[in-house]
Design goal:
The complex is a heterodimer of chains A (548) and B (275). Chain A contains three helices and 38 strands. In chain A, the strands form ten sheets. Chain A has a five-stranded mixed beta sheet, with no helix packed on it. Chain A has a four-stranded antiparallel beta sheet with strand order 2-38-37-36, with no helix packed on it. With 275 residues, chain B is α+β, with helices and mostly antiparallel strands. Chain B has three domains: 116 residues, Orthogonal Bundle (Cytochrome Bc1 Complex, Chain D, domain 2), CATH 1.10.760; 68 residues, Cytochrome Bc1 Complex, Chain D, domain 2, CATH 1.10.760.10; 46 residues, SH3 type barrels (Roll). In chain B, 29% of the residues lie in helices and 15% in strands. In chain B, β1 and β2 form a beta hairpin. In chain B, α1 packs across α4, α5 crosses α8 and α7 packs across α8. The N terminus of chain B is likely disordered. Classes of the chains: A mainly beta (548), B alpha+beta (275). At the A-B interface, β29 and β31 of A face β4 of B.
């Protein structure tokens, strides 16, 4: 353990100052001060990776170009880190995106642990593991964690049992802890929090247990809750007319993926998941606002400014919990500020991020449920595509045409890259009765698999949704993509490959077999001026570069 | 389905079946099985559910097909009623037996009760003489492609326990019309996949035909009839095709007469592992 690592860089260690150094270490924050200004500049700064998606626009774009079309053939493993074994049964699937700040890498490990590594060598600096009961509920998803947030000297992590922790970035010591929600009724935290100004913003999972979901903000210093915004309105609130009876109380609308933030508009963008129960819509007639939606919130108060619902009255479990990427560009000759989202329902959407106005939708993957999207953004339904007792075959499967794993946007070329699942499923409808802390589903699916399903990495024109190329994958992927300033797109496959594609042609230029199923997102950083890209395959985090 | 991942939901993830719908209520009692107390109505309900969810593989009477006959007192993967419940609920990893989510716990118990009642039925009778079949097995060079009790070459499926896995009708079809069935495997990653798919690869140095052993976006590995494994970069192949519905096993319809076939089927039925 070396908690001086962060200090070393800035304070020359001379005999004269040795004693002062010890005092300084205790008394003042180290040089690794990651304040809000640094977070705002994260996008442009290729050396660090300070939030889940590598910046508030959620582009997951690394501007570095040392590793490029010409040099990528020399890419090799610089170091690897084997994750810590856990006793918890069912834990061990890794979905983390590491952060890198000032030469330290922070990552989460399943179920909810945090590890700090020296980003130069991969040496372990500290590891923190919360006590989590074996019986922890995680209804509808495995025991995973996708990452953390950082502010000043503190990292923030949500746990499977729905607590939020603030840890000292230097040592892993707990600064504060708070219960976000009650795990015994099915609430759980698997997403990376997002820091905006002095607030830690977090959503949650639980729609498969019939929770009524919300988004919370906590004071980063104290852990006090500052606001809570429910995604399903109570009677009398706007949107409540889209629910009947008591169905809102178990309405779902989980918020289980990290959002984006526009500092100019001062708006927070967060996505919501399916209404509950998942497949039996008879129990909740109406559009079921604000499920399967994009919400724009005032980050200081949580007040909802506008919403856009992608899939009204969803009955296929097509959560809109995908990464909303903030993009700017010309639509019909006019400069627009947009939110781009490749939805699980197989359509690619552009929404005006100033006011929520629908701008564009186009199909990016096989689907058989909608004839198209109308001028207001509402799907034109094809009849008889609802789940049924005897089963209804529909594309995409409930895992969607894409899922939580991240897309990427290159603002220079206006290309949107997304990992695509090509899979249909037979959807079944069944009865559902709400019982707290148990699955509240109303059906299920049998997905087509094996040679009947496949995947791809797609390049779309971000402003038109038109496909530019596809790189086929053997099976429907569970891992995201990252574009870089070197004209590359990094991605990975279930089969265990981490690969680099040429962003213009989609040709594979380089690959590495990690030897295990990959279900994480790539990220990038630089250390001592050398570009690095990282991915986790199985239990091993690999960091690649051109030279040591 | 297969891959329990497909069960997963919103948060979209891999669901360990044990955590799922099942959650067999651990009420502290050692025998939680409701099967002993089941009446005719439960069993009739179980039969009905079985015909919807199971019969396409196990046959309407549970007499087998793509899945094994369940008209057996002793099942391979099942020790007690609870493990039968789990097999039905979760499936059997790495085999063609998928989990099921559609029936609720009570219904799974009813199915399990029906499966238990099948076990009380007499075993399927053999159509011929297994000893004569053993000789035919040796004479027909089946062992050039199959391992049984440690002997032979593993091109097709191992036959050591094929009598537990398949019923007479399926075994007969394997011999007379090998194209008809493709043994499926369940894999955590790809889901339910054809375990013995015939593939053809045309490389610059010649043509290769064999069974797909492994495949990814960049490469494919196949096993030829001699048992040799070949690995190809897909991008280097002139052609690559999957011959769905075409088995590498020769059809024996014209080679074996009816009596021969009955005897050989009987011999295969007698292959039940060590016991």
């Amino acid at each position: 353990m070396n908690h001086c690592a962060a200090v070393k860089k800035s304070v020359p260690l001379t005999i004269r100052s040795l004693i002062t150094l010890i005092v300084i270490t205790i008394a003042i924050p180290s040089a690794a001060q990651i304040n809000f200004e640094r977070l705002l500049a994260d996008e442009a700064n290729g050396a660090d990776w300070l939030s889940y998606s590598g910046g508030y626009r959620s582009e997951r774009f690394s501007p570095l170009a040392q590793i490029n079309r010409d040099t990528v053939k020399d890419l090799k493993v610089i170091w690897a880190y084997q994750m810590q074994p856990t006793d918890m049964s069912g834990a061990g699937l890794q979905e983390t995106t590491p952060l890198v700040a000032e030469g330290i890498m922070y990552l989460t490990e399943s179920p909810s642990s945090v590890t700090a590594l020296d980003a130069l060598t991969g040496r372990l600096l500290w590891h923190w593991s919360p006590e989590i009961d074996e019986e922890v509920l995680h209804i509808g998803f495995p025991k995973v964690n996708r990452g953390l947030a950082i502010l000043d000297e503190t990292v923030f992590v949500g746990t499977l049992d729905a607590r939020l922790f603030a840890l000292d970035a230097g040592t892993g010591a707990v600064r504060w802890e708070t219960e976000v929600a009650d795990n015994s009724v099915g609430f759980s935290l698997t997403l990376a929090p997002l820091v905006v100004d002095n607030l830690v913003i977090i959503g949650m999972s639980g729609a498969e247990a019939g929770v009524r979901a919300f988004i919370d903000a906590y004071d980063a210093k104290t852990g006090e809750r500052v606001w809570r915004t429910y995604t399903v309105p109570a009677p009398g609130e706007p949107g409540s007319e889209t629910w009947q009876g008591d169905s809102w109380q178990t309405g779902g609308g989980s918020t289980w993926l990290t959002g984006s933030y526009d500092p100019e508009l001062d708006l927070l963008y967060w996505t919501t998941g399916n209404p509950a129960p998942d497949w039996n819509g008879d129990l909740r007639p109406g559009d079921n606002l604000f499920t399967c939606s994009l919400l724009a919130l005032d980050p200081a108060t949580g007040e909802m400014r506008w919403h856009f619902q992608y899939t009204p009255h969803d009955t296929h479990d097509w959560d809109a919990n995908q990464i909303p990427i903030l993009i700017d560009g010309k639509i019909k000759g006019q400069n627009r500020k947009l939110v781009a989202l490749a939805n699980r329902n197989a359509f690619y959407y552009l929404i005006d991020r100033t006011n929520g106005e629908f701008v564009h939708a186009s199909q990016y993957s096989k689907q058989t449920w909608a004839a198209g999207i109308d001028g207001t953004g509402r799907p034109i339904l094809i009849p008889d595509k609802e789940p049924s007792e005897e089963g209804t075959l529909v594309w995409p499967s409930l895992q969607g045409a894409t899922n939580w794993f991240s897309p990427s946007y290159n603002p220079d070329t206006e290309q949107f890259f997304v990992a695509n699942r090509r899979m249909g499923a037979v959807y079944y409808k069944a009865d559902a009765e709400y019982e707290p802390g148990t699955p509240f589903l109303g059906g299920g699916e049998q997905a087509l698999s094996g040679d009947d399903a496949s995947g791809a990495v797609l390049a779309l024109n971000g402003l038109t949704g038109e496909q530019q190329w596809e790189f086929p994958l053997q099976s429907p992927p569970w891992s995201g993509v990252m574009a870089t300033g070197g004209g590359l797109v990094f991605g990975s496959s279930n089969e265990g490959y981490f690969f680099a594609l040429d962003a213009t042609s989609g040709q594979a230029l380089w690959r590495f077999n990690t030897g295990a199923h990959i279900r994480t997102n790539p990220m990038g950083f630089a250390i001592d001026g050398k570009q690095r890209v990282a991915i986790t395959g199985g239990q091993t985090l690999y960091v690649f570069g051109l030279n040591q | 389905m297969t891959w329990r991942t497909t069960l997963c939901l919103c948060t979209a993830l891999l669901l360990t079946p044990a955590t799922w719908a099942n959650q067999p209520e651990d009420n502290g009692q050692s025998s939680a099985s409701p099967i002993p107390a089941m009446n005719e109505t439960d069993l009739a309900a179980g039969r009905q559910l079985f015909s919807v969810h199971c019969a396409r593989c196990h046959g309407m009477q549970g007499d087998g097909g793509e899945g094994p006959s369940l008209q057996r007192a002793r099942l391979k993967h099942v020790s007690d009623d609870e493990s039968l419940f789990e097999v039905i609920n979760d499936g059997i990893q790495g085999t063609g037996m998928p989990g099921t989510w559609a029936p609720n716990d009570d219904e799974i118990w009813q199915i399990a009760g029906f499966v238990r009642s099948l076990g009380k039925l007499p075993e399927e009778p053999m159509p011929g003489d297994p000893a004569a079949g053993a000789i035919l097995y040796a004479d027909s060079a089946c062992a050039t492609c199959h391992i049984s009790r440690g002997q032979g070459r593993g091109v097709g499926p191992e036959l050591t326990e094929v009598g537990l896995r398949r019923n007479a009708e399926y075994l007969r079809r394997s011999l007379t019309n090998p194209d008809a069935d493709s043994p499926m495997l369940d894999s955590q990653i790809t889901g339910r996949i054809n375990g013995f798919l015939t593939v053809r690869a045309v490389a610059s140095d010649g043509e290769y035909e064999g069974l797909r052993v492994s495949e990814d976006e960049f490469s494919v590995q196949l096993r030829d009839l001699r048992g040799t494994i070949h690995s190809f970069e897909k991008s280097q192949l002139l052609r690559y095709e999957k011959a769905f519905g075409h088995s590498l096993m020769p059809g024996y319809l014209t080679v074996l007469n009816n009596q021969n076939t009955d005897d050989l089927v009987s011999y295969l039925m007698s292959l039940k592992g060590d016991s």
